[in-house]
Amino acid sequence: MTGVAVMREERAIVSWRMEGFEPGTFRDVEVAGREYVDHFWLRADVPGDVHTTLREAGVIPDPFVGHSDWGTRWVEQRVWWYRGHFFMEEGALHSGDTLELVFEGLDTLATIYVNGRELGRHANMFVPVSFDVTRELVAGDNVVAVKLDPIAAAVREKDLSLWAAFNRERVWVRKAQSHFGWDWGPNIVPCGIWRPVLLRRHRGMIIRSAQVRTLSAGEERARVRVEVDVEGPLIGDAAAGARVRVCLWEGDRKAAVSECSLDGDRAAADLEVPEPRLWWTFDLGEPYLYRMEITLVVRGEEVDRREHPVGLRTVTLLREENGEPRFTFVLNGRPIFAKGANWVPADQFVGALPDGRYVRLLRAARNAGMNMIRVWGGGLYEREIFYDTCDRLGILVWQDFMFACALYPDYNKDFLENVKMEIESVVRRLRRHPSLALWCGNNENDWLWEMMVSDGRLREPFYGERIYHRLIPETLRRLDPERPYRPSSPYGGTDHNSAEEGDRHNWQVWHGHVYPRRFGEPERVDRSVPGVSFKQYLRDTARFVSEFGIQASANRYTLERWIPPGKLEWGGPELEYRNKDAHPEKAMLLMAGYTGIPETFDQYLMYSMLTQAEGLRLAVEHYRRRKFATSGALIWQLNDCWPGISWSIIDYEGLPKAAYYYAKRFFHPYLLTLEEQGDEWVLWAVWDGWGLLRDEVQVEVVDFQGNRLKVGRWPVRVPDNGRQEVVRLSRKEWLARADVREAAVALRSTSGRTPVRWVYLCDQMEMRLPPATLQARILPGGRAVRVETDVHARMVLLETPGRAAVFRDNYFDMAAGESRTVELSQDDPNPLDRVTVRCLNNSCEPRGGPLAQAGM
Questions:
Q1: What is the DSSP string of 706-768?
Q2: Whole-prediction pTM value?
């Protein structure tokens, strides 16, 4: 930083070292002082975390390998110090500017020092904190020291009687709740400086945040209000002469300009945008982003300027239509069926996570037809790269506040003040994003508390209620009044998880919850093969399903990378350790009802993948046939935080599971689906796009040798954003020449506008599939594979030994005699040199059984 006056200048502090101590070993003021020698401490990356720094230095093994996390428990018991160094020139200290030290994310119980002076404490992972250090900095070397106290010691004297799933310490600490372990992630509690540390220099007044409110939007014009918050020590003296100028840019053209006076620390500018380009989800149009420029002017001098992209759009939540309850998102006046998944933190050690992981995961979601992502309430308010990418890709965000599956001590004044600061900070930060569609107070707290009180497991008041039912809605009324808010998920109806009203988490499948239930009734659970079967989805009449899922194995490459060599075996302790569900036998129950129980790892890989994929397909097709009586289906879950066995459809290494590839078909804007109603089949066409859809559908009954046993064609005419019952067919007539164990039904668009849908006529374990001979050939250039089969091939899997290659399609079915070219994903830059191909009817025996291989 120079001594020249500037509007705003920021630089990251990047030179850091780290060391750990037993609590009470040193006086804090000694370690924080400028003269303390930290030369022999470990170099540390910021952003980052303690575990990753120790791993990179070879001090600890990677906690994800085998059972290595057990050998790193001591890390959580230490006091950890970071010391950062930066140089200041003499002139920068006497320019009259304000110098601020900004921590964008501290995890979690931090005490901050500059040159030995204690600036303050901070105890919230989710909230930035800044300090005016204009007087504390010196010419030459300056030292920032951050002390991070162990969480276990800090909460030891707290009341740990409050109910919480998985871990009771977590409710007192404002950090990612999943760090303490969940049924899909490990109990590894990281700490560190997980977001950048900045030295900010400014004139004393800065633009704190801005809210863009699209009041109305049509083809001819949009009315927009931009609300700007300003902060700084000079506000009282300078406010009378301060003005805010707002300019909306469409490329190089000014689309709208407005200027207004500052009223205290706030300003509101109204703009009218002619012929606006609206922000749409990617499946409905262009997610167009204007560039908004906000300038703060004091007595004719520009003192601060902020720029960021903005989208013009309206989002509402339709709750009733024609006297019937609804839960339908309406974007720019158009009802949408929400298709998507739940997002969990993309790594247990999120501070070290590169931005590219976010971009790849969200691009994968869009490529699978997902127009909504729910940020689940036990994780994080994500980094800006997440929301910026959703803005750019055209994906709506359902945003939970970070409270999940627990009672929270809202009776404690200090805790509640911490939460109040968090809510305000998060709302101010995220409200500008056009992708943000809904705020939600918590994950499952209202539902679980009422249910546990009803069956006698809890006798405590609903601690946390003040947060979700008072604090958050009051804050949103002030700071973000138009955006929909829900106190909890699920919430509404005669039970907070009812089908009649609100949103539902369908955990009858997998967890065995028995529905319906009413307020005051005890929880009922049926953990039997039929009780947890994915066929239970067909009974669900929910208005919006915000969680539903089935567990499946991670891909072979992922497990082989993280399980020690020779230890990957079915029924072995290493594979078992990857599954954090307290009742892993539920996986066996689901497979027992569809594929049969696996006997080898290869069978488990294929059987669990198929069960998850077919179960989710059955659910989504059922929900989409009910459009808009059901208006959304968000799968639990999109991604993983570690290389485990979970409900994700993309594993930790970024490799899609079978269900992801199925999602590309069942989330397609144009869906052909067959519903069984007694002795009839009902063929449906569902269309999420614009205008009338005209097509022709061909229905075929085909045996596994490729013989067509019956064929029919019908016209398709689906209205804009609608559905059509195309035809009713007699099941008996159509199967007169077929053995249901040896044939399938193909639904084909004769124009090829939607993928072929294969409908199987019995459970997988009852099918009599002939052994398939597969041939695979890598095409010139190494970017594609040609696959051929002689008979019907069920769930064809392409793998690249020793490499995490992602194909555009995988885990697909092939008709007898079919050949198919499968390309690598655009995110995979390296050509193929070897590939193996297998399917269910040629490979479910110990590895080394029949499979096709191809090489360059």
A1: S-EEEEEEEEEEEPTT-EEEEEEEEHHHHTTT--TTSEEEEEEETT--S--EEEESS-GGG--
A2: 0.96
